[in-house]
């Protein structure tokens, strides 16, 4: 144990919390992917030195209080309207860095029009999209991205595609639009995936500084409370069930 | 006995005991404690400190960023 | 001598916005107000003042782009007509809840539903009683001329920033479409970011060394939400105390009173003249601010006149506020054509005679 104690000294630190991440305890459930993605955004903002010029736009959903965790200026949007807010901010302050943070219900259901048109105009912003296939905040109802057969509070027998349609693969759709410069789908359940997601976020923010248009980073995520599994089981379930529908990788990189 | 190359410090009060770090650790250093913290969570701790290689995997996957990772400088391994 | 121009009301809104240094306009076409954005696009102010003009995908997007810009302390506005304003109600309550200043122009047309593209004043309730959910108020200005369409843009921004609250210019298809002589204001420079940050420390422009700012309307803790609502109500009381605006026409010796705003007030001016030729002593009180409403001034006339007629191009909306103002002291009735129809001055006088004098 004395060996360990001798290693624990400031000059040996190889991983610690980014100062851009605030000390507030996150309200998310244990194991929730939101926390990991928040952390990565904070690390990218810190490493790029853009904390003082960044404005985040928070959604409605579990991450409605995202502004409590990342130490930048924030605006909280109505459900689905984050891309419209981000458009207003970026058009009026083109020299600032603007990102939206949205879940699947926010980005791919109620805010579909705002999402598609912001991307189609090529708004020079970063959109971070958390896809866990469920409405977590309201208690686990069916999302636009809920898998066929997957059970949720408003499809307790499982999603019946003859009744509710297939899940929407919105990133594939957005990659078709000329306004997007970078559309990628990542995950944060393993150290390797976390590193890839961070690289994707970094690229997205760099695209904005280079005025390249809209960058969308989808993160296929877990909602262990909504899925009614423990966090480790959720990660396994995600690999087996979510990834076949939402395969990871770049959909567009120009 | 293996010589520890790394170490972690868990903010046990902030830890929610999700166990993601336990799975991510390649050398099985981390376990969830039998006792609970103030929130009632079985927090993560270094059960096998001598195996830690300071790879940061646990810190990287931790959703609540409550793990700080240390690694001894290369000279210490001589 | 200021510049004189013959303009449509909608064009005057656009011209005034450019001249008073507005930073951004976000809109979506709808009759009878599309000339606002058309004029702005034609004038291309991004080349002169740097003003941003963007056609959004919907009124929902427009009002939320306004929210984003307003949160940065920029002077941003949108315009629409009744069905489009209905779509903006979500955004308006969020703007009020986040205490964001902005200007929204409603060139009202007849409803309900898709209704008609002809003028009406049937969005009074929506404008002054809430419209969206929650306890909030919109500062509501009612122009009665093309000149006021121009002048009220800057006034609305001044009030919006003074009270950190959205302000609405409640016009109608008559004022929006008609042409009149307008005396235009001087060109004023847009606010610099430095000016905004110094005078409005709540804005989100990047934290730049200070504590971060958060623009939000969510307070999950009821006691915090209640305290915030008290703060809003105090602000509204202050606004009611200081910002009531109205105009009186031939009220000194009046035995009857027309209460009318916007184009109905213009019509009533003529009705006053016709009535007086017939020997009926009638005056006109024109509320310029519909919220805050000139309650006290109307109450003052309750002791002097024999009756009041609220004249509106609606089935009777403002009449409720007139009645509340007089507390039953005198008879109050309503007259107005609606659904896109506009009353004539003669019809108004006839209504006065039938509803209040002969009755």
Automatic annotation (TrEMBL), chain A:
This protein is called 2-oxoglutarate oxidoreductase
Q: Where is the Thiamine pyrophosphate enzyme TPP-binding domain?
A: 67-219
Give the record's keywords alphabetically: Oxidoreductase
Q: Which residues form the signal peptide?
A: none
Q: Respond yes or no to whether keyword Oxidoreductase is given for this record.
A: yes
- Origin species, per record, is Carboxylicivirga linearis
Gene3D superfamilies, per the entry: 3.40.50.970
Q: Does the keyword Oxidoreductase apply?
A: yes
From TrEMBL, chain B:
Q: Which SUPFAM superfamilies has this protein been placed in?
A: 4Fe-4S ferredoxins
Ranges for domain 4Fe-4S ferredoxin-type come to 6-35, 43-72
Q: Which Pfam families match?
A: Fer4_7
Q: Which domain of life is it from?
A: Bacteria
For this UniProt record, give its keywords in alphabetical order, as a comma-separated list.
Answer: 4Fe-4S, Iron, Iron-sulfur, Metal-binding
Q: What protein does this entry describe? A: 4Fe-4S binding protein
Q: State the organism named in the record.
A: Carboxylicivirga linearis
Taxonomic lineage per UniProt?
Answer: Bacteria, Pseudomonadati, Bacteroidota, Bacteroidia, Marinilabiliales
């Amino acid at each position: 144990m004395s060996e360990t104690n001798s290693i624990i000294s400031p000059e040996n630190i190889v991983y610690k919390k980014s100062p851009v991440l605030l000390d507030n305890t996150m309200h998310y459930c244990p194991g929730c992917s939101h926390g990991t993605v928040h952390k990565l955004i904070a690390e990218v903002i810190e490493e790029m030195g853009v904390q003082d010029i960044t404005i985040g736009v928070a959604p409605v959903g579990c991450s409605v209080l995202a502004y409590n965790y990342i130490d930048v200026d924030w605006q909280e949007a109505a459900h689905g309207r984050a891309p419209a807010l981000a458009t207003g901010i970026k058009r009026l302050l083109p020299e600032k860095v603007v990102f939206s943070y949205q879940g699947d219900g926010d980005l791919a259901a109620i805010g579909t029009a705002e999402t598609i048109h912001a991307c189609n105009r090529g708004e020079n912003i970063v959109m971070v999209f958390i896809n866990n296939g469920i409405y977590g905040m309201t208690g686990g109802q069916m999302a636009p991205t809920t898998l066929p057969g997957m059970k949720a509070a408003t499809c307790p027998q499982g999603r019946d595609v003859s009744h509710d349609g297939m899940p929407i693969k919105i990133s594939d759709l957005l990659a078709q639009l000329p306004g997007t410069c970078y559309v990628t789908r990542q995950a944060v359940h393993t150290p390797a995936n976390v590193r890839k997601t961070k690289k994707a976020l970094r690229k997205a923010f760099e695209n904005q500084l280079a005025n390249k248009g809209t960058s969308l980073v989808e993160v296929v995520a877990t909602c262990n409370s909504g899925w009614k599994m423990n966090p480790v089981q959720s990660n396994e379930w995600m690999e087996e069930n979510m990834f076949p529908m939402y395969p990871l990788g770049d959909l567009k990189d120009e | 006995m293996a010589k520890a190359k790394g170490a972690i410090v868990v903010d046990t009060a902030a830890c929610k005991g999700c166990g993601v770090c336990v799975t991510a650790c390649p050398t099985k250093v981390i376990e969830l404690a039998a006792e609970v913290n103030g929130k009632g969570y079985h927090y993560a701790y270094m059960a096998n400190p001598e195996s830690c290689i300071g790879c940061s995997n646990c810190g990287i996957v931790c959703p609540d960023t409550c793990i700080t990772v240390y690694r001894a400088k290369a000279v210490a391994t001589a | 001598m200021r510049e004189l121009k013959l303009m449509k009301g909608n064009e005057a809104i656009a011209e005034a916005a450019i001249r008073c240094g507005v930073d951004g306009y976000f809109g979506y076409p709808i009759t009878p107000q599309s000339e606002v954005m058309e004029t702005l696009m034609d004038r291309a102010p991004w080349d002169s003042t740097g003003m941003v003009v963007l056609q959004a995908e919907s009124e929902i997007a427009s009002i939320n782009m306004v929210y984003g810009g307003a949160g940065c302390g920029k002077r941003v506005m949108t315009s629409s007509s009744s069905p489009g304003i209905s779509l903006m109600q979500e955004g308006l309550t969020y703007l009020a809840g986040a205490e964001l200043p902005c200007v929204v122009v409603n060139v009202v047309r007849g409803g309900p539903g898709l209704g008609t593209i002809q003028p009406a004043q049937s969005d009074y309730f929506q404008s002054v009683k809430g419209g969206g959910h929650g306890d909030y108020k919109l500062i509501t200005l009612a122009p009665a001329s093309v000149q006021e369409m121009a002048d009220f843009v800057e006034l609305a921004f001044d009030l919006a920033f003074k009270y950190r609250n959205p302000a609405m210019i409640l016009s109608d298809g008559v004022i929006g479409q008609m042409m009149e002589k307008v005396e235009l204001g001087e060109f004023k420079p847009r606010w610099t970011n430095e000016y905004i940050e110094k005078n409005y420390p709540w804005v989100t422009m990047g934290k730049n060394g200070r504590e971060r700012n958060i623009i939000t309307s969510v307070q999950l803790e009821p006691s915090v939400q209640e305290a915030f609502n008290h703060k809003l109500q105090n602000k509204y009381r202050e606004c009611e105390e200081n910002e009531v605006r109205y105009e009186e026409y031939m009220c000194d010796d009046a035995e009857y009173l027309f209460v009318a705003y916007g184009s109905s007030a213009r019509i009533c001016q003529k009705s006053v003249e016709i009535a007086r030729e017939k020997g009926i002593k009638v005056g006109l009180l024109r509320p310029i601010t519909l919220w805050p409403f000139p309650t006290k001034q109307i109450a003052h006339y309750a002791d002097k006149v024999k009756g009041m007629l609220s004249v509106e191009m609606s089935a009777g909306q403002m009449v409720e506020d007139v009645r509340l103002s007089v507390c039953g002291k005198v008879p109050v009735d309503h007259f107005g054509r609606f659904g896109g129809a506009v009353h004539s001055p003669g019809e108004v006088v006839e209504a006065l005679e039938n509803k209040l004098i002969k009755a």
